[in-house]
Amino acid sequence: MAPFVTSIKSPLGPSKSAFLQRGFSLQSPNLPRFASKARSFGVFARAATEKSVHDFTVKDIDGKDVALSKFKGKALLIVNVASKCGLTSSNYSELTHIYEKYKTQGLEILAFPCNQFGGQEPGSNPEIKQFACTRYKAEFPIFDKVDVNGPSTAPVYQFLKSSAGGFLGDLIKWNFEKFLVDKNGKVVERYQPTTSPFQIEKDIQKLLAA
């Protein structure tokens, strides 16, 4: 089926134009909703899987191994980020605000750079780190650049997607898709790329209080 938009000039940046050209609306009528609020909180945590996020080891932005088991007992917001996306400024700004507000209450934000959507994370790891930490004062953990789709998908993202399949399947659709993970390392919610961090603050509060 051909997308309903063939050419868009967006003041919000080329990534949003490309996103719309794929047939999705930033106003959300045509964007797949991964997490229906009509369902109970935690619906996506599949009892059949024995794994949790805590079973994985990843590399941080400096190339050091990080066992995600270090985050046991914390609520996690996991995001695939990009530096040159039309969603970059709002997401990084809001993620920084959310982290500052809730980090002492047990929230960690895990950012995974990814260059698979419009080539919008082309920089080296040092460049990505400087961008996030200098421009947006990001203090949350940033990890090595990964693939989130395809044959080279990072194992942690294979787990996230299998735990919370989206309306159109397991594929990550764009930059800044978000997974909310409970203190036991299980996925409880998945959010579309255009869902802002501020929009999921109540879910974060609920998870921290659990």
UniProtKB/TrEMBL annotation:
**Molecular function via GO:** peroxidase activity
Taking every annotated instance into account, which residue ranges of this chain make up the domain Thioredoxin? 47-209
Q: Kindly give the InterPro entries that the UniProt entry links to this protein.
A: Glutathione_peroxidase, GPX_AS, GPX_CS, Thioredoxin-like_sf, Thioredoxin_domain
User: Could you state one GO biological process linked to this protein?
Assistant: response to oxidative stress
CDD domains per record: GSH_Peroxidase
UniProt keyword terms in alphabetical order: Oxidoreductase, Peroxidase
Q: Name one Pfam family in it.
A: GSHPx
Q: Which PANTHER family match?
A: GLUTATHIONE PEROXIDASE, GLUTATHIONE PEROXIDASE 7, CHLOROPLASTIC-RELATED
- Family recorded in the similarity comment: Belongs to the glutathione peroxidase family.
Q: Output this protein's name.
A: Glutathione peroxidase
Q: Please report the organism this UniProt entry assigns to the protein.
A: Populus alba (White poplar)
